[in-house]
Amino acid sequence: MYALIVPAALPFVLLGIVMGLSWWEDHVLPPAEAPAEAPAEAPFTPAAPADAPNPPATLPR
């Protein structure tokens, strides 16, 4: 009976390990320091939206 439970539970065990390591990385490890000469990024400014073309007054038949 255990021979059926172990293979079925393995994906969940691996998922739990990955989630635990992710939590540990976020909460336990100290934050990584940025390089000393990292260039400052310019703020993102979206381009002005282009005007949509006017639709035809009537549809062709």
Structure description:
The chain has 61 residues and is mainly alpha-helical. The chain is 43% helix and 0% strand. The protein is built from 1 helix and no strands. The N and C termini lie far apart (72 Å).
Relative helix content? 40-55%
**Overall spatial form:** flat
Distance between the termini: 72 Å
The total count of strands amounts to 0
Number of helices: 1
Order of helices and strands: H
Give the overall average pLDDT. 80
Q: C-alpha Rg, in Å?
A: 28 Å
Give the percentage of residues in beta strands. under 5%
**What is the subunit arrangement here?**
single chain
Which class do the helix and strand fractions yield?
mainly alpha
Give the low-pLDDT segments: none
Biggest sheet architecture: none
Explain briefly what this protein structure is.
The chain is mostly helical.
Fold topology:
Blueprint: H1 2-27
Features:
mainly alpha, 61 residues, 0% strand
